[in-house]
Amino acid sequence: MKILVCISHVPDTTSKINFVNGDSEFDTNGVQFVINPNDEFGLTRAIWFQEQQGATVTVVNVGGPDAEATLRKALAIGANEAIRVNANPTDGFFVAKQLAEVVKSGGYDLVICGKESLDYNGGMVPGMLAGLLDYNFVNSCTELTIEGTSAKVAREIDGGKETIAASLPLVIGGQKGLVEEKDLRIPNMRGIMTARTKVLTVLEPVAANVNTKAVKFEKPAPKSAVKLFSADDLDGLVNALHNEAKVI
Amino acid sequence: MSLLIYAESADGKFKKVAFELASYAKKVAESLGTTVTAVTVNAGNVSDLSKYGVDKVLKVSNDKLANFNAKAYADVVKQAAQKEGAKVILLSSTTDSLYMAPIVAVGLDAGFASNVVGLPISTSPFQVKRNAFSNKAFNITEITTDVKVLSLAKNSYGLVESASSATEEDFAPSLNEADFNVKVASVEKTSGKVTIADADIVVSGGRGLKGPENWGMLEELASVLGAATACSKPVSDLGWRPHSEHVGQTGKPVATNLYIAIGISGAIQHIAGINSSKVKVVINSDADAPFFKVADYGVVGDAFDIVPRLTQKLKEFKAQNA
Questions:
Q1: Alpha-carbon span B145 to B122, nearest angstrom
Q2: Which of A158, A160, A223 sits opposite B94 (nearest CB)?
Q3: What ipTM was predicted for this assembly?
Q4: What is the pTM of this model?
């Protein structure tokens, strides 16, 4: 089984979010970039398939040279090889189009994406990729097992979960649950050394429409100070929730 | 040219987000000088949509669509959009609608903006404001394609009644057999509880509650308020509560009218997950907990003392205002 894991290179979850150039660009100054957490669950699951079922795992990112550190980390975790599509990921459709080309030329059976990236939160790449490839698709995946060409997948639904049967080739949008958080891999020294010798291919992008443009960013307006009630004045709190905030 | 919404339903009944979407669509349609058409799948009484300004309803009834299927539902929405000549297609930001929206966008060669939080800033060029960076910022996005797909963030517009008399029409789109290669084998629903996705109020607990055995008082508070219960990441990691209740950047996002955080200090990832909630109440014994910086109301004190008394006060309030 050939697995492609799509990796977004995103600011660490503790990052302060600021913008520069007239609020048109994210300020990367002092920001640590990591593998998108939703992708990390998928990568770890892919490595499990590699170890248990002899799958090969390729990781791919659409991004500039700075994303290579993130791809090297994925290689250190255990991916067999990496691909970087050398382009600025301008919008979800552009990224999906690049990934679709990689999937077509590589003949992957299973494509694992995170259900969304923690920067733009568009949540559109997995579905667009499946749409472009006309592959089976399951989003918000929390469990995945494969036997031969049959996949059993669980996905989160509002207020529960759904178990799904599908066949390969398959695209999934994965999230927490694909593996337990305690099972996420941290690169060890041997992995880091081995990663240096693994193949990282750089591909040039194919032409694609840009369907959306990020014009500008804004930060939420500063909040007014919290209104504190003493532990003896819970009537005051109930009154504020009813008369002032009008939420009860 | 019309404007199309997909009005989401469950067990034949529209979800509240469908009415919010209709309210929003009515306003967008006014600014575009057009009308609102809704497409529904196996929904019962569609006249409820009229209260929120829908002009026309395309009713799809098909047993094959009894379970949600992203590709097949995307086919339905795509064909409805083509039939109506819709240039703007609006969906909610539920798990199901977000699942199919990108497929709809690809099918219609449309740009897609998700988690939109308000009316378009301008319609020419078409620019909308959407959540980004896990609710730590907004992004003004321009959709450059002729056809546009948007998903509206929950509770970002609200319900606005606007009476109309919608015409109803049966609609039978052609479905692609291959779309049903993804088969639902079983569905497990949490029964008898308000889910985070549907809730207008969420009561959430953190490590300050000391153990899963203490969740009873939270559940009682939630029950008085008709709220869902949730928890912080450490609580789900410790196995005190299920992962499905974990709220935060890597858990579930919460955009409720009221979010009550009890014994949660307020890690940046947790705040990111709840930032879209309108009113935040924090109960914590540590006056320096970072959560107080983003809260609207707070009580510094011991949750084990405060929560039962607050529940009692709310019971009395509900009794008086019933």
A1: 15
A2: A158
A3: 0.95
A4: 0.94
